[in-house]
Design goal:
Elements lengths: L2 E5 L5 E6 H9 L3 E13 L4 E10 L15 H7 L13 E4 L14 E4 L1 H7 L4 H4 L12 H8 L18
Parallel strand pairs: 1-4
Antiparallel strand pairs: 1-2, 3-4, 5-6
Helix pairs in contact: 2-5
Length: 168
């Protein structure tokens, strides 16, 4: 199922929603489509609309300030673009740099995307103990970075062309 980026009326990113929810918001005039998937349409008996990739709310929604994105396994995989931090192959799991059994926590700076083979090879050790090298250091992304990564873009990429830059 496709994810759609939801922007506030001020063009700041708020969340990603399912395609179904995005279409409902547009049909109820609560949002307007800012960017569509080229050549894709949703058709029904009385509806024929383009598939929205980015929508903007019609009314401004006040959101409490968040300096850092909440940690999640899905977020780690998206942040690292589903690439193993040890070998660069496709990642399917999340590995703790400092294992949980050694006091490691579920944080952005202690977790990396990993392929199952490297995760198993590293086991209950630090990368240094296992003789493995990290290709890139883990970092704590901003909430906007996580939203963009969830949409399939690079963490540091901007919005699709035609959308104003994010006011972060």
């Amino acid at each position: 199922m496709r994810e759609t980026l939801v922007l506030n009326a001020s063009f700041e990113p708020l969340a990603t929603v399912s395609l179904r929810r995005a279409v409902v918001l547009v049909m109820q005039d609560k949002a307007v489509v800012e960017h569509v998937h080229p050549g894709m349409r949703i058709r029904a008996a009385s509806v024929d609309v383009p598939v929205p990739r980015v929508i903007r709310l019609s009314r401004y929604v006040r959101v409490p300030f968040r300096r850092q994105a909440s940690w999640s396994r899905r977020g780690v995989l998206a942040r690292d673009q589903h690439r193993c931090a040890y070998c660069g192959k496709r990642a399917t799991t999340v590995d703790h740099v400092v294992p949980r059994s050694h006091g490691g926590r579920d944080t952005w700076l202690n977790t990396v995307a990993s392929c199952a083979e490297d995760n198993h090879r590293k086991a209950d050790r630090t990368p240094e103990q296992a003789g493995m090298r990290l290709l890139r250091r883990p970092f704590a992304p901003t909430p906007a970075d996580v939203l963009m990564a969830a949409l399939g873009g690079s963490v540091r990429d901007g919005l699709p062309r035609g959308i104003p830059p994010l006011a972060l």
